[in-house]
Write a structure and sequence with these properties.
Layout (H helix, E strand, L loop, with lengths): L1 H13 L12 E9 L4 E5 L6 H10 L4 E5 L7 E5 L8 E6 L2 E6 L2 H14 L1 E2 L4 E10 L5 E7 L7 H13 L4 E5 L1 E2 L2 E2 L8 H4 L16 H13 L3 E8 L4 H6 L27 H17 L4 E5 L6 H5 L1 H9 L5 H18 L3 E5 L14 E5 L2 H4 L2 H8 L4 E3 L2 H4 L19 H7 L11 E8 L10 H5 L2 H10 L7 H10 L1 H6 L18
Parallel strand pairs: 2-3, 2-4, 4-6, 9-10, 9-18, 10-13, 13-14, 14-15, 15-16, 16-17, 17-18
Antiparallel strand pairs: 1-8, 5-6, 5-8, 7-8, 11-12
The structure holds acetamide and zinc ion.
Zinc ion binds next to α10.
Length: 513
Protein backbone atom coordinates (compact mmCIF):
# COMPACT_ATOMS: atom_id res chain seq x y z
CA UNK A 1 0.00 0.00 0.00
CA UNK A 2 2.76 2.35 1.01
CA UNK A 3 4.63 1.49 -2.18
CA UNK A 4 1.53 2.05 -4.35
CA UNK A 5 0.94 5.43 -2.80
CA UNK A 6 4.55 6.38 -3.32
CA UNK A 7 4.41 5.31 -6.94
CA UNK A 8 1.23 7.29 -7.44
CA UNK A 9 2.88 10.33 -5.96
CA UNK A 10 5.94 9.91 -8.18
CA UNK A 11 3.94 9.41 -11.36
CA UNK A 12 1.69 12.33 -10.61
CA UNK A 13 4.57 14.66 -9.96
CA UNK A 14 6.44 13.37 -12.99
CA UNK A 15 3.46 14.13 -15.18
CA UNK A 16 3.72 17.77 -14.18
CA UNK A 17 6.44 19.97 -12.73
CA UNK A 18 9.35 17.53 -12.88
CA UNK A 19 9.07 17.31 -16.63
CA UNK A 20 9.30 21.07 -17.03
CA UNK A 21 12.73 22.56 -17.54
CA UNK A 22 13.20 26.34 -17.75
CA UNK A 23 14.74 27.52 -20.01
CA UNK A 24 13.17 24.89 -22.25
CA UNK A 25 15.51 22.44 -23.91
CA UNK A 26 15.58 22.31 -27.69
CA UNK A 27 13.83 18.93 -27.57
CA UNK A 28 12.48 16.94 -24.63
CA UNK A 29 10.61 13.60 -24.70
CA UNK A 30 9.47 11.52 -21.77
CA UNK A 31 7.98 8.03 -21.80
CA UNK A 32 6.27 7.89 -18.41
CA UNK A 33 8.72 5.50 -16.72
CA UNK A 34 11.22 6.44 -14.04
CA UNK A 35 14.78 5.89 -12.93
CA UNK A 36 15.23 5.54 -9.16
CA UNK A 37 18.91 5.36 -8.25
CA UNK A 38 19.90 3.44 -5.12
CA UNK A 39 21.55 4.82 -2.02
CA UNK A 40 24.96 4.37 -3.63
CA UNK A 41 25.42 5.88 -7.07
CA UNK A 42 28.40 5.32 -9.34
CA UNK A 43 29.26 8.20 -11.64
CA UNK A 44 31.78 8.13 -14.44
CA UNK A 45 33.22 11.25 -16.06
CA UNK A 46 36.23 12.21 -18.19
CA UNK A 47 37.55 14.30 -15.29
CA UNK A 48 36.28 13.41 -11.85
CA UNK A 49 37.48 16.62 -10.21
CA UNK A 50 35.30 19.06 -12.13
CA UNK A 51 32.66 21.23 -10.54
CA UNK A 52 29.65 19.77 -12.33
CA UNK A 53 30.14 16.59 -10.30
CA UNK A 54 30.12 18.62 -7.09
CA UNK A 55 26.88 20.24 -8.25
CA UNK A 56 25.43 16.81 -9.05
CA UNK A 57 26.32 15.58 -5.59
CA UNK A 58 25.07 18.65 -3.75
CA UNK A 59 21.98 19.65 -5.70
CA UNK A 60 20.78 16.51 -7.48
CA UNK A 61 21.70 13.57 -5.23
CA UNK A 62 22.18 15.12 -1.78
CA UNK A 63 21.30 11.94 0.13
CA UNK A 64 23.17 9.41 -2.05
CA UNK A 65 26.70 8.12 -1.56
CA UNK A 66 28.53 8.99 -4.74
CA UNK A 67 31.40 6.92 -6.13
CA UNK A 68 33.29 8.73 -8.86
CA UNK A 69 35.14 6.78 -11.48
CA UNK A 70 36.78 7.46 -14.83
CA UNK A 71 35.39 4.21 -16.21
CA UNK A 72 31.92 4.07 -17.70
CA UNK A 73 31.21 0.34 -17.40
CA UNK A 74 28.39 -0.21 -14.92
CA UNK A 75 28.19 3.43 -13.80
CA UNK A 76 24.66 4.59 -12.98
CA UNK A 77 25.35 8.07 -14.36
CA UNK A 78 27.77 8.39 -17.26
CA UNK A 79 29.26 11.65 -18.55
CA UNK A 80 30.78 10.98 -21.97
CA UNK A 81 32.90 13.24 -24.15
CA UNK A 82 31.28 13.76 -27.53
CA UNK A 83 33.23 16.10 -29.76
CA UNK A 84 30.45 16.11 -32.36
CA UNK A 85 28.35 18.32 -30.06
CA UNK A 86 28.57 22.12 -30.21
CA UNK A 87 30.11 24.12 -27.33
CA UNK A 88 27.73 24.27 -24.33
CA UNK A 89 25.35 21.76 -25.96
CA UNK A 90 24.48 18.41 -24.37
CA UNK A 91 22.30 15.37 -24.72
CA UNK A 92 20.72 13.63 -21.76
CA UNK A 93 19.10 10.19 -21.71
CA UNK A 94 17.41 8.97 -18.56
CA UNK A 95 16.42 5.29 -18.83
CA UNK A 96 15.27 2.86 -16.12
CA UNK A 97 18.93 1.68 -15.87
CA UNK A 98 20.63 5.02 -15.49
CA UNK A 99 21.58 8.35 -17.00
CA UNK A 100 23.85 9.11 -19.93
CA UNK A 101 25.06 12.64 -20.56
CA UNK A 102 27.06 13.62 -23.62
CA UNK A 103 28.81 16.94 -24.25
CA UNK A 104 31.98 18.27 -25.85
CA UNK A 105 33.21 20.10 -22.76
CA UNK A 106 32.55 20.98 -19.13
CA UNK A 107 29.98 23.66 -20.02
CA UNK A 108 27.67 21.13 -21.69
CA UNK A 109 28.05 18.72 -18.75
CA UNK A 110 27.36 21.56 -16.32
CA UNK A 111 24.14 22.56 -18.12
CA UNK A 112 23.05 18.92 -18.23
CA UNK A 113 23.43 18.78 -14.44
CA UNK A 114 21.41 22.00 -14.15
CA UNK A 115 18.69 20.27 -16.18
CA UNK A 116 18.91 17.17 -13.97
CA UNK A 117 18.35 19.41 -10.93
CA UNK A 118 15.01 20.41 -12.40
CA UNK A 119 14.08 16.84 -13.36
CA UNK A 120 14.95 15.28 -10.01
CA UNK A 121 11.97 14.50 -7.89
CA UNK A 122 12.32 14.20 -4.13
CA UNK A 123 10.54 10.97 -3.16
CA UNK A 124 11.11 11.43 0.55
CA UNK A 125 13.60 8.58 0.69
CA UNK A 126 15.71 9.58 -2.31
CA UNK A 127 15.21 10.92 -5.80
CA UNK A 128 13.52 9.71 -8.96
CA UNK A 129 13.95 10.95 -12.52
CA UNK A 130 11.42 10.78 -15.34
CA UNK A 131 12.81 8.71 -18.20
CA UNK A 132 13.57 11.45 -20.64
CA UNK A 133 15.51 12.08 -23.83
CA UNK A 134 16.81 15.63 -24.16
CA UNK A 135 18.76 17.30 -26.93
CA UNK A 136 19.73 20.82 -25.99
CA UNK A 137 21.84 23.71 -27.16
CA UNK A 138 22.03 27.47 -26.85
CA UNK A 139 20.30 30.11 -28.99
CA UNK A 140 22.77 32.93 -28.20
CA UNK A 141 26.38 32.39 -27.18
CA UNK A 142 26.39 35.52 -24.95
CA UNK A 143 23.75 35.38 -22.18
CA UNK A 144 24.17 37.81 -19.32
CA UNK A 145 22.69 39.23 -16.17
CA UNK A 146 23.77 42.53 -14.61
CA UNK A 147 23.60 43.56 -10.97
CA UNK A 148 24.06 47.16 -9.82
CA UNK A 149 26.42 47.06 -6.85
CA UNK A 150 27.26 50.73 -7.37
CA UNK A 151 24.05 52.25 -6.03
CA UNK A 152 23.51 49.51 -3.44
CA UNK A 153 26.15 47.32 -1.84
CA UNK A 154 25.28 43.63 -1.68
CA UNK A 155 27.06 41.12 0.55
CA UNK A 156 29.42 38.61 -1.05
CA UNK A 157 26.93 35.83 -0.26
CA UNK A 158 24.26 37.72 -2.22
CA UNK A 159 26.58 38.16 -5.19
CA UNK A 160 27.22 34.39 -5.10
CA UNK A 161 23.49 33.70 -4.97
CA UNK A 162 23.02 35.95 -8.02
CA UNK A 163 25.73 33.97 -9.83
CA UNK A 164 24.06 30.69 -8.80
CA UNK A 165 20.85 31.99 -10.33
CA UNK A 166 22.51 32.94 -13.62
CA UNK A 167 24.10 29.49 -13.82
CA UNK A 168 20.82 27.76 -13.00
CA UNK A 169 19.23 29.64 -15.93
CA UNK A 170 22.12 28.72 -18.27
CA UNK A 171 23.51 32.23 -18.55
CA UNK A 172 27.27 32.54 -19.02
CA UNK A 173 28.21 36.15 -18.17
CA UNK A 174 27.78 38.13 -14.96
CA UNK A 175 27.98 41.86 -15.73
CA UNK A 176 28.96 43.48 -12.45
CA UNK A 177 28.21 47.22 -12.29
CA UNK A 178 30.83 48.15 -9.69
CA UNK A 179 30.88 51.93 -9.74
CA UNK A 180 28.25 54.65 -9.83
CA UNK A 181 27.44 58.02 -8.31
CA UNK A 182 26.38 56.41 -5.04
CA UNK A 183 29.37 54.16 -4.56
CA UNK A 184 32.75 52.95 -5.79
CA UNK A 185 32.84 49.27 -4.78
CA UNK A 186 36.11 47.86 -6.11
CA UNK A 187 39.35 48.12 -4.16
CA UNK A 188 42.05 49.77 -6.27
CA UNK A 189 45.39 49.50 -4.43
CA UNK A 190 46.95 52.50 -6.17
CA UNK A 191 44.04 54.79 -5.25
CA UNK A 192 42.85 53.78 -1.75
CA UNK A 193 40.56 56.81 -1.35
CA UNK A 194 38.28 55.41 -4.07
CA UNK A 195 36.98 52.95 -1.51
CA UNK A 196 38.00 54.61 1.76
CA UNK A 197 35.79 57.55 0.79
CA UNK A 198 33.98 56.61 -2.42
CA UNK A 199 32.38 53.46 -0.97
CA UNK A 200 30.71 55.46 1.80
CA UNK A 201 29.26 58.56 0.11
CA UNK A 202 25.62 57.43 0.25
CA UNK A 203 23.46 57.39 3.36
CA UNK A 204 21.50 54.12 3.18
CA UNK A 205 22.36 51.22 5.49
CA UNK A 206 22.89 48.94 2.46
CA UNK A 207 24.90 51.52 0.55
CA UNK A 208 28.08 51.19 2.60
CA UNK A 209 30.94 48.98 1.58
CA UNK A 210 33.20 47.66 -1.15
CA UNK A 211 34.75 44.42 -2.39
CA UNK A 212 38.37 43.78 -1.50
CA UNK A 213 40.61 42.40 -4.20
CA UNK A 214 40.66 39.05 -2.37
CA UNK A 215 36.85 38.96 -2.35
CA UNK A 216 36.79 39.80 -6.04
CA UNK A 217 39.23 37.01 -6.87
CA UNK A 218 37.06 34.62 -4.83
CA UNK A 219 33.93 35.72 -6.72
CA UNK A 220 35.63 35.39 -10.11
CA UNK A 221 36.70 31.82 -9.17
CA UNK A 222 33.22 30.99 -7.84
CA UNK A 223 31.69 32.16 -11.11
CA UNK A 224 34.25 30.31 -13.26
CA UNK A 225 33.36 27.02 -11.53
CA UNK A 226 29.80 27.70 -12.66
CA UNK A 227 30.82 28.43 -16.28
CA UNK A 228 30.30 32.15 -15.80
CA UNK A 229 32.68 34.92 -16.81
CA UNK A 230 32.52 38.07 -14.70
CA UNK A 231 32.53 41.29 -16.74
CA UNK A 232 33.37 44.23 -14.48
CA UNK A 233 31.93 47.64 -15.30
CA UNK A 234 33.80 50.78 -14.33
CA UNK A 235 31.49 53.55 -15.49
CA UNK A 236 33.20 56.55 -17.12
CA UNK A 237 33.17 59.46 -17.77
CA UNK A 238 29.72 59.86 -16.13
CA UNK A 239 28.12 58.22 -13.08
CA UNK A 240 31.38 59.04 -11.31
CA UNK A 241 30.34 61.23 -8.36
CA UNK A 242 31.60 58.69 -5.79
CA UNK A 243 35.06 58.54 -7.40
CA UNK A 244 35.17 62.32 -7.76
CA UNK A 245 34.25 62.77 -4.11
CA UNK A 246 37.47 60.92 -3.34
CA UNK A 247 39.59 62.59 -6.04
CA UNK A 248 37.94 65.93 -7.02
CA UNK A 249 41.07 66.94 -8.97
CA UNK A 250 39.95 64.49 -11.69
CA UNK A 251 36.86 66.58 -12.47
CA UNK A 252 36.72 69.67 -14.67
CA UNK A 253 36.59 72.29 -11.91
CA UNK A 254 37.87 70.33 -8.88
CA UNK A 255 34.87 71.62 -6.99
CA UNK A 256 32.85 69.90 -4.33
CA UNK A 257 30.79 67.00 -5.55
CA UNK A 258 27.10 66.48 -4.93
CA UNK A 259 26.24 62.80 -4.71
CA UNK A 260 22.79 62.32 -6.27
CA UNK A 261 20.20 60.36 -4.29
CA UNK A 262 18.80 59.26 -7.65
CA UNK A 263 19.91 59.70 -11.25
CA UNK A 264 23.18 61.43 -12.07
CA UNK A 265 24.77 64.91 -12.22
CA UNK A 266 26.94 66.74 -14.72
CA UNK A 267 30.03 66.31 -12.51
CA UNK A 268 31.95 63.79 -14.59
CA UNK A 269 35.60 62.82 -15.17
CA UNK A 270 37.43 65.59 -17.07
CA UNK A 271 38.53 64.23 -20.44
CA UNK A 272 40.75 67.27 -21.03
CA UNK A 273 43.19 66.54 -18.20
CA UNK A 274 46.06 64.14 -18.90
CA UNK A 275 46.10 63.22 -15.21
CA UNK A 276 42.51 61.98 -15.40
CA UNK A 277 43.21 59.79 -18.42
CA UNK A 278 46.35 58.42 -16.71
CA UNK A 279 44.34 57.70 -13.54
CA UNK A 280 41.65 55.83 -15.46
CA UNK A 281 44.24 53.73 -17.30
CA UNK A 282 45.85 52.80 -14.00
CA UNK A 283 42.45 51.76 -12.66
CA UNK A 284 41.94 49.67 -15.80
CA UNK A 285 45.35 48.02 -15.20
CA UNK A 286 44.22 46.74 -11.80
CA UNK A 287 40.78 45.77 -13.10
CA UNK A 288 42.38 43.68 -15.87
CA UNK A 289 44.61 42.00 -13.29
CA UNK A 290 41.56 40.94 -11.27
CA UNK A 291 39.20 39.92 -14.06
CA UNK A 292 40.41 37.51 -16.77
CA UNK A 293 37.26 38.26 -18.82
CA UNK A 294 37.81 38.97 -22.53
CA UNK A 295 35.27 41.80 -22.05
CA UNK A 296 35.79 44.82 -19.80
CA UNK A 297 32.86 47.29 -19.55
CA UNK A 298 33.71 50.99 -19.39
CA UNK A 299 30.20 52.43 -19.16
CA UNK A 300 29.90 55.57 -21.29
CA UNK A 301 26.21 56.18 -20.55
CA UNK A 302 24.48 59.37 -19.46
CA UNK A 303 27.42 61.76 -19.38
CA UNK A 304 26.03 65.34 -19.48
CA UNK A 305 28.36 67.77 -21.23
CA UNK A 306 27.59 70.95 -19.22
CA UNK A 307 30.97 70.94 -17.46
CA UNK A 308 32.98 69.88 -20.51
CA UNK A 309 31.39 72.74 -22.48
CA UNK A 310 32.76 75.21 -19.91
CA UNK A 311 36.03 73.55 -18.93
CA UNK A 312 39.18 75.19 -20.39
CA UNK A 313 41.01 71.84 -20.40
CA UNK A 314 38.21 70.04 -22.24
CA UNK A 315 37.84 72.89 -24.72
CA UNK A 316 41.60 72.94 -25.31
CA UNK A 317 41.53 69.17 -25.92
CA UNK A 318 38.72 69.64 -28.46
CA UNK A 319 40.84 72.21 -30.35
CA UNK A 320 44.08 70.19 -30.11
CA UNK A 321 42.45 67.04 -31.39
CA UNK A 322 40.42 68.93 -34.01
CA UNK A 323 37.16 67.61 -32.62
CA UNK A 324 33.83 69.28 -33.28
CA UNK A 325 32.37 69.49 -29.77
CA UNK A 326 32.06 67.85 -26.34
CA UNK A 327 30.14 64.88 -27.76
CA UNK A 328 33.06 64.31 -30.10
CA UNK A 329 35.36 64.55 -27.09
CA UNK A 330 33.50 61.65 -25.49
CA UNK A 331 33.95 59.68 -28.72
CA UNK A 332 37.69 60.43 -28.58
CA UNK A 333 37.75 59.41 -24.88
CA UNK A 334 35.91 56.17 -25.74
CA UNK A 335 38.39 55.38 -28.52
CA UNK A 336 41.35 56.19 -26.23
CA UNK A 337 40.18 53.87 -23.43
CA UNK A 338 39.10 51.12 -25.86
CA UNK A 339 42.50 51.36 -27.56
CA UNK A 340 44.15 50.90 -24.17
CA UNK A 341 42.12 47.72 -23.60
CA UNK A 342 42.94 46.55 -27.12
CA UNK A 343 46.66 46.70 -26.27
CA UNK A 344 45.88 44.33 -23.42
CA UNK A 345 44.00 41.96 -25.71
CA UNK A 346 40.59 42.79 -24.23
CA UNK A 347 37.33 43.90 -25.78
CA UNK A 348 35.80 47.14 -24.52
CA UNK A 349 32.05 47.18 -23.88
CA UNK A 350 30.24 50.54 -23.81
CA UNK A 351 26.60 51.50 -23.43
CA UNK A 352 24.97 52.57 -26.69
CA UNK A 353 25.31 56.29 -25.91
CA UNK A 354 28.84 56.24 -27.37
CA UNK A 355 27.60 55.65 -30.93
CA UNK A 356 24.59 57.92 -30.83
CA UNK A 357 26.50 61.13 -31.73
CA UNK A 358 28.78 61.72 -34.71
CA UNK A 359 30.98 59.35 -36.64
CA UNK A 360 34.23 59.39 -34.73
CA UNK A 361 36.08 56.14 -35.57
CA UNK A 362 36.17 53.57 -32.76
CA UNK A 363 38.63 50.67 -32.56
CA UNK A 364 37.40 47.26 -33.67
CA UNK A 365 37.50 45.81 -30.14
CA UNK A 366 34.47 47.92 -29.12
CA UNK A 367 31.23 46.13 -28.23
CA UNK A 368 27.98 48.10 -27.90
CA UNK A 369 25.39 47.38 -25.21
CA UNK A 370 22.08 48.67 -26.54
CA UNK A 371 19.86 49.86 -23.70
CA UNK A 372 17.90 53.05 -24.30
CA UNK A 373 14.85 51.77 -26.14
CA UNK A 374 12.54 54.16 -24.31
CA UNK A 375 14.60 57.25 -25.16
CA UNK A 376 16.13 56.48 -28.55
CA UNK A 377 14.48 53.35 -29.97
CA UNK A 378 16.89 51.23 -31.99
CA UNK A 379 19.36 54.03 -32.83
CA UNK A 380 22.30 52.48 -30.95
CA UNK A 381 21.62 49.08 -32.51
CA UNK A 382 21.51 50.56 -36.01
CA UNK A 383 24.62 52.72 -35.44
CA UNK A 384 26.56 49.73 -34.13
CA UNK A 385 25.51 47.64 -37.12
CA UNK A 386 26.58 50.46 -39.47
CA UNK A 387 30.03 50.36 -37.85
CA UNK A 388 30.09 46.56 -37.77
CA UNK A 389 30.45 46.46 -33.98
CA UNK A 390 29.03 43.53 -31.98
CA UNK A 391 25.87 44.31 -30.01
CA UNK A 392 24.58 43.09 -26.66
CA UNK A 393 20.81 43.67 -26.51
CA UNK A 394 19.75 44.94 -23.09
CA UNK A 395 16.87 47.32 -23.85
CA UNK A 396 15.19 48.97 -20.87
CA UNK A 397 11.85 47.71 -22.29
CA UNK A 398 11.82 44.77 -21.35
CA UNK A 399 15.10 43.61 -19.87
CA UNK A 400 15.48 46.11 -16.98
CA UNK A 401 14.16 44.04 -14.12
CA UNK A 402 14.33 46.95 -11.68
CA UNK A 403 11.26 48.31 -13.48
CA UNK A 404 8.48 47.05 -11.19
CA UNK A 405 5.06 45.68 -12.19
CA UNK A 406 3.21 48.52 -10.50
CA UNK A 407 4.21 52.15 -9.91
CA UNK A 408 6.76 52.41 -7.10
CA UNK A 409 8.77 55.47 -6.01
CA UNK A 410 10.24 57.07 -9.18
CA UNK A 411 8.82 54.36 -11.43
CA UNK A 412 5.63 55.72 -12.91
CA UNK A 413 3.16 53.56 -14.77
CA UNK A 414 5.01 53.99 -18.07
CA UNK A 415 8.05 52.32 -16.47
CA UNK A 416 6.33 49.12 -15.40
CA UNK A 417 6.03 45.77 -17.13
CA UNK A 418 5.16 42.15 -16.48
CA UNK A 419 6.22 38.71 -17.70
CA UNK A 420 3.77 38.84 -20.60
CA UNK A 421 5.41 42.06 -21.88
CA UNK A 422 8.84 40.45 -21.65
CA UNK A 423 7.72 37.31 -23.42
CA UNK A 424 5.71 38.91 -26.21
CA UNK A 425 7.19 42.34 -26.83
CA UNK A 426 10.87 42.45 -25.87
CA UNK A 427 12.80 44.45 -28.52
CA UNK A 428 15.98 42.67 -27.41
CA UNK A 429 14.63 39.31 -28.56
CA UNK A 430 16.04 39.46 -32.09
CA UNK A 431 16.54 36.58 -34.53
CA UNK A 432 19.85 34.82 -33.81
CA UNK A 433 21.15 35.67 -37.30
CA UNK A 434 20.64 39.45 -36.87
CA UNK A 435 23.78 41.21 -38.17
CA UNK A 436 26.27 42.06 -35.39
CA UNK A 437 24.19 40.38 -32.69
CA UNK A 438 26.49 39.12 -29.92
CA UNK A 439 23.82 38.25 -27.39
CA UNK A 440 21.37 39.40 -24.81
CA UNK A 441 21.56 40.69 -21.27
CA UNK A 442 19.18 41.68 -18.51
CA UNK A 443 19.84 44.23 -15.78
CA UNK A 444 18.86 44.76 -12.20
CA UNK A 445 19.60 48.39 -11.39
CA UNK A 446 19.20 49.47 -7.79
CA UNK A 447 17.88 53.03 -8.22
CA UNK A 448 15.54 54.27 -5.49
CA UNK A 449 16.93 51.74 -3.03
CA UNK A 450 16.35 48.25 -4.37
CA UNK A 451 17.72 46.48 -1.31
CA UNK A 452 18.86 42.86 -1.00
CA UNK A 453 15.52 41.58 0.26
CA UNK A 454 13.85 42.97 -2.89
CA UNK A 455 16.10 41.31 -5.45
CA UNK A 456 14.24 37.99 -5.83
CA UNK A 457 10.85 39.61 -6.31
CA UNK A 458 12.20 41.88 -9.04
CA UNK A 459 13.97 39.01 -10.79
CA UNK A 460 11.40 36.23 -10.46
CA UNK A 461 9.52 35.12 -12.36
CA UNK A 462 10.20 37.65 -15.15
CA UNK A 463 13.83 36.56 -15.58
CA UNK A 464 12.53 33.12 -16.60
CA UNK A 465 11.10 34.65 -19.79
CA UNK A 466 14.45 36.31 -20.49
CA UNK A 467 16.36 33.08 -19.89
CA UNK A 468 13.97 31.35 -22.30
CA UNK A 469 14.69 33.98 -24.95
CA UNK A 470 18.45 33.74 -24.44
CA UNK A 471 18.76 29.96 -24.36
CA UNK A 472 15.89 28.19 -26.14
CA UNK A 473 16.94 27.72 -29.76
CA UNK A 474 13.53 26.92 -31.23
CA UNK A 475 10.40 28.97 -31.61
CA UNK A 476 8.94 30.21 -28.35
CA UNK A 477 5.94 28.25 -27.17
CA UNK A 478 2.60 30.04 -26.78
CA UNK A 479 2.65 32.46 -23.83
CA UNK A 480 -0.13 30.60 -21.99
CA UNK A 481 1.86 27.35 -22.13
CA UNK A 482 5.03 29.09 -20.95
CA UNK A 483 3.17 30.87 -18.18
CA UNK A 484 1.74 27.55 -17.07
CA UNK A 485 5.30 26.14 -16.89
CA UNK A 486 6.38 29.16 -14.84
CA UNK A 487 3.55 28.65 -12.36
CA UNK A 488 4.09 24.88 -12.13
CA UNK A 489 7.76 25.46 -11.43
CA UNK A 490 7.18 28.09 -8.72
CA UNK A 491 7.65 25.66 -5.83
CA UNK A 492 10.82 24.32 -7.32
CA UNK A 493 12.44 27.75 -7.77
CA UNK A 494 11.32 28.80 -4.30
CA UNK A 495 12.89 25.64 -2.89
CA UNK A 496 16.15 26.74 -4.49
CA UNK A 497 15.85 30.01 -2.55
CA UNK A 498 14.35 32.31 -5.21
CA UNK A 499 10.97 33.61 -4.11
CA UNK A 500 8.66 34.79 -6.89
CA UNK A 501 7.38 38.34 -6.98
CA UNK A 502 4.25 39.16 -8.99
CA UNK A 503 4.15 37.84 -12.55
CA UNK A 504 1.22 39.62 -14.21
CA UNK A 505 -0.01 43.17 -13.75
CA UNK A 506 -3.64 42.18 -13.46
CA UNK A 507 -2.95 39.29 -11.11
CA UNK A 508 -4.63 39.57 -7.75
CA UNK A 509 -1.59 39.16 -5.57
CA UNK A 510 -0.35 39.85 -2.11
CA UNK A 511 3.25 39.83 -3.20
CA UNK A 512 5.16 42.87 -2.07
CA UNK A 513 6.62 45.02 -4.83
C1 LIG B 1 21.74 52.88 -18.31
O1 LIG B 1 20.61 52.42 -18.04
N1 LIG B 1 22.05 54.11 -17.91
C2 LIG B 1 22.73 52.11 -19.01
ZN1 LIG C 1 37.20 69.18 -18.29
Amino acid sequence: MKYTLLLFFILHAISSAAQIVIPSPQEIRSDGSTFCPGKTVTVSAPDTSTFYLTLLEKEVLPTAILHKSRFAAQADIRFTDDRTLLPEAYTLRVSPDGIEVRASGKEGFFYAVQTLRQLALDTGSGVAFPCTAITDRLRLSFRAGMLDSGRQYQRVATIKKFIDMLAMLKMNYFHWHLTDGLGWRIEIKRYPELTAKGAFVATGAEQQGFYTQDEIREIVRYAADRCITVIPEIDMPGHAEAALSAYPELSCFQDSVIVPETGFTSTIFCAGKLATIAFLKQVVDEVCGLFPSPYIHLGGDEAPKDKWNECPDCQQAIRDKQLSDSEDLQAWFTAEMAGYLKEKGRKAVFWGDVVRHGNYPLPDNVVIQWWNWRGAGDRALKEAQKRNLPVICNTNYYTYLNFPLHPWKGYEVNRTFDIRDVYLANPSYLPADTPCLLGMSCSLWCDYGVTENMLDGRLFPRILALAEQMWHPGELKHFDAFYNDVQQKKNWFEKQGFVYGPALKNENTNHPE
